[in-house]
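Forwarding the complex inputs:
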Amino acid sequence: MPEKNEDIRIGVFLCHCGSNIAGYLNMEELADFAENLPHVAFVQRNLYTCSEGGINEIKKGIAEQNLNRVVVASCTPRTHEPLFRSSCGEAGLNPYLFEMVNIRDQCSWVHMKEQEDGTSKAKDLIRMGVAKAALLEPQEVIMSEVQVRALVIGGGISGMTAALALANRGYEVVLVEKDAALGGMLNRLNRLGPTMTQASELAGEKARAVTGHPNITVFTDGRVANVQGFIGKYTVDIETESGVKKADIGVIIVATGARAFVPDGLYRYDGKRVVTQLEMETLLKDGLRPDIKNVVMIQCVGSRNEERPYCSRICCQTAVKNAMLIREQSPDAKISILYRDMQMYGVENEEMFRDSKAGGVRYMNYDPERPPRVEPDRVRVYHALLGREMELPADLVVLSTPLVAQEDAEDTSRLLRVPVDENGFFLEGHVKLKPLDFATDGVFLCGSARFPANIREAVAQGLGAASRASIPLSKGSVVVEPIISVLADEDACRGCGLCVALCPYGALEIQHTEKGRKVHVIDVACKGCGVCAATCYRHALSINSYTDGQIRSQVEAFLG
Amino acid sequence: MLDVGRHPNISLLAYSEVETVEGQAGNFRITVRRKARYVNEDRCTGCGACAEKCPTIVPDAFNEGLGNRRAIYSYFAQGIPSTHTIDADHCRQLNGKKCGICAKTCQAEAIDFEQKDRIVELDVGAIIIAAGYDVFDPYRIPEYRYREIPNVVTAIEFERLLSASGPTGGHMDRPSDRAVEADIAELEKNVTKSWKVLAKLEEKYGESSAAFYEKYQAGAFPDDEDRKKWADKYAAHLAAAEPLEALKQKAAGFTVAKRLAFIQCVGSRDFRFYPFCSGYCCMHSIKEAIIAHEHEPETTSTIFGMDIRAVGKGFEEYKIRGGNHSNITYVRGRVAEIVEGPDNNPVVIYEDTRERKVKRQEFDMVILATACAPSKGIAALAKTLGVELDTYNFIKTSPLSPVDTTAPGIFVCGCAESPMDVPESVAQGSSAAERAAEIAFQPDLEKEKAVA
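Prediction (whole assembly, two chains):
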């Protein structure tokens, strides 16, 4: 609330936006209207309030008219609020004593043919903005230091890539791997498509670089047991055989990978004559038995079905690669790949697909309604394109099973307060625009923990996650707009925790205080979305610059 | 875009091209040609008053030529920077004619007809290529008769038709119908004009043109020059008015396109053009079909493809949802030919490979999922930068260093590297930024990194 003896002096600047606003609304009428609103001490019309001239007028108004609140009625805050705020700041006014009213996008542009009604609506909008401005309070930008150290969870290809990238930039990295050795899934693979690089060579090379890097501390056989804190200030417990180590961490990268689905009970899977593609990698590594002449591969085993509706992205390319490697070891082997759609997206995959066809690998389309049947020495399949039953002799049947989420993904999710999707993979902040960030600041994501990825993709994502994570590290601090949630009425809070459960950003926690259980807002983690304040039935929480009082005054102003 | 435009650490040099690059990783010197816009960037507020008044109408490249813009324009409504540009090829003033209306209109005094190209020099530590791709021109596939059959459009053209800010305001009006409507407008303009002339004559002689014309044709006014002119005018008027009526009747029956065909792999997975898979087209066809159905619930779509490659996160689920809720039918088969049927309806001829039958099916509109073609300018850019290209003219990388080009300190992301969808491009943008940062922010190299 403004101090009682403070004289509120509001300056209203009405932007013509060339003719974007002035061409459709009666600006003179708006100016007269604004002058008569409570607390308004100064009204000015500008051709472009955002131009240098317009900005100078705001500054002049603050200096000469002793304005202590500024309202600009113009375009959208998305583009121009930062400019107007900082201009107020430059003129010595707290930037949060500024209010913006959108009379262009939400008014003149949508009421181009209704000048009278449009002007009347603009009046409502301005009246509401002025009413709120009178109740605005100064706010200070929130700054919190960042511990310049990253935690990477998972020592597979994407995790190692991310760790090395950050370490090369000069940041300290703690890498926790649950297995005894670094390498992750790479350790179980034979060669990598499309270049047919030895997976073990790549794993060894990366692992040596990681362990030899002065900026990286590696914990193998390790487990992240506890995570406390928020962006810039995490305290992490790492459990190893030699006890629990504590680490102060600024940012966290989740690179926990995925595991291959084991098709127990499907297609007579036995791990010997009927194997998975992952087991096929081992067979190829050890050298294929020479009596294996007929190989049948079946795609989409355990995926693209009701239980697991997703396409696991990388199984088709794995099958094609392994088919080619079988032909390399046993040139007269007959290989048939039974597929639904061959998912050889992109340049390299399609190239490999064509090469395999030229190399004699046969492809047969099957219908999921009539799936192949594996018999002791053969596979029967209804060829959906030829329209007839085929009988394929088979010394070895290879099942292409999807990558599925790690068994402990749920635990990691709870530990870091980040979500997983319906398939158990980690859910990024935005599927299109923030593929490597979580909604929660300070936690990032890469590799098959997000969704099945091949080597090229896992490396690219490892680099990308490192890039995202390096932003707070390089700044050394996080600066947050103070439009966040605050515990405005501590006595009202009963510590019920409803808001904590609903906060999408992990920005709330219950603390035990002298007055009992109370919610505490982690200000740097809060995005000011308002879910908590809207939820709190005790009205204990409030959002800065969107307080109940301010919004009520806007509503009352609207109702007149 | 907005974030880029607003970021204090980014100097955005739009409408500019890199001309020369010297030096090595950590220490490049680049010259950039900033092409003349004939508009002062510092003054222009992007208000658009100039474009409203500009008298010169030019087909709008952003709307795939489906709409018009003026000779002074911003590339599209939300473009960053919002600075307008004068199209020197079409501007009257720049072509020696009298005009200058924009300069008179502009209250910010931003118009500068004397502006010249400027060369700026930049010192940078690392370079990222994010030059994108071109849309394959399906005109090269004769059997699909693109441009010949008006209602065969590309996916990007269809995208503009679906857009609320596009040339049809988001209605799926067929190009053939829009052409008829444009003809009607043109004829109507002529007819209105001739009516005015006729009205004057009717007043002068005190009888209707029709009545007069009947007498005239019967030979009533043999040597009257004035009446001959009237008769000629009326004849010309009838010649325009009759087809106008016919067109109007035809147009009365127009409805939005409701039966849509999407044809996959147009130029991709095709040995004549690009043998690779463009990766994202299956998904954009499904997306466009779903949105079309949202706009018009009676819409049915058929997607013709060899494999439907819904390989990303949530994609297969999206594909199934499209089938269940948006009237999409997926047909496995490559379309052989498109011919034109009655009412400008394209007819698709294909083999349904699951039924092993050649079929014909009539649609209101056909949408071609065109290939992701390497950008035309990329070879020149690659030469300037000294980076190698792959066999197709994408920037060459290796699977283990997915954003490193063959030249140290120069990185690549997005479709300049190979076809990819939005999430992958966004992720790769970060990957390239990481690699660039490793070079640009070496403790011993204090170099500014600029993004052009």
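Residues 115-135 of chain A form the longest helix (21 residues).
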